[in-house]
Amino acid sequence: MEKGNPHQQDETRWATLMQEAQAGNEEDYRQLLNELATFIKSYLVSRFGNHCFIEDWVQDILIAIHEARHTYDTGRRIRPWLFAIIHHKAIDALRRKKSYDRLLSAQQQEALAQVPAAPNCCPEEALARGELMDHLRPKHRDALVLTKIQGYSIRDAARQLGVSEGTVKIRVFRGIRELRKQLEFPS
Amino acid sequence: MNDTQDLILRLTTGLQAQKPRLSIWIQAFTWLVISGVITVLLIHMSGPIRSNALSQLFSTPRFALEIASGISAIAALAVTGFLSAVPAAAHRGLFLLTLLSLTLFLGLNAYALFNPPLAPSTLGKREHCLYETFVYGILPLAFAWHLISRYYPLNPGRTAAMLGLSAGLMSAVYMQIACVYEPVHMFIYHLMPASLLGLSAALCTLWRTRFHTR
Fold this sequence. Notes:
Number of strands of chain A: 0
Strand content of chain B: under 5%
Helix content of chain B: over 70%
Largest sheet of chain A: none
Order of helices and strands of chain A: HHHHHHHHHH
Oligomer: heterodimer
Shape of chain A: elongated
Strand content of chain A: under 5%
Distance between the termini of chain A: 32 Å
Number of strands of chain B: 0
Number of helices of chain A: 10
Order of helices and strands of chain B: HHHHHHHH
Largest interface: A-B, 30 and 26 residues
Largest sheet of chain B: none
Helix content of chain A: over 70%
């Protein structure tokens, strides 16, 4: 007997669980969201790196899945539906600088507590494990890292890179656009 | 229990069963038909249509092609707009098809500026066609928004723009039959207000989502 590959098994199981969730089955829905939380986190970490704000992104995505669950058509595959939501929310969160706010808040709290930053929160190291960022053009990646990950203002990032503020903004915009394309059409 | 676990517990407690909904395709086509009928009725109620328009439609193939391309652009925008309200339902190819339909319609009308299929005339002139085109599109647009607000458009601005343009083009295309046939007049008094309706819908939606982010 031919065993389905892991993706196919997930596809079938998640589609069934979502169908049950649409019928009001709390237990199946809880199982689905727990599995999706783990999956989404590992997906985001593999693409963006293991940052402190990834957990927030996971929660935002779970909320979006919850709000959109009625739009899932049980006759269609669930993975495209899921990934559309994941990609949209991830890019949206990056664009809104939520990562900057939370990273800054975390850094401030750590400074006050005089506790060294956990290894996983080191942006540069985490970025090295983020596939998506590695594939960006260097000038776009540098602009994104400085503004969205390390929390530099546009002015400070411009000073650091030795370019104008307008150039930084354009590079951030293009970097996010490249990330979106890579998420939707991975090479 | 961490925050995510707590969130999952809150989301799953007191879960309500979802009511089955009509297919988004059926909703899109229903909207097209009803809105088309409403638009035609409104235009007829507000004044007569150009007296020779129907005969021109049958006797001049290029004019018929302009109208047909307009109708296909309206349908493509509507279907893509409705499907874009469901995550992953609207494929990239559909957006491309919509763009091609719109380009064909605009291209034919642009070509008519240099080589009109009909002799331009002032027969059937409507005094307020610019405002009529815009206003008659509002009701279909509101109806469309009421239908898709029950879904989850990931890009509400884009969805609103497509549905707004589809609604606006309904009155714009029928005005090519009801009002004067004069290419420059059509661009300024029919197509421009239709485009404005699409733009207004997008801007209103973006403004609204700024305060009610999803």
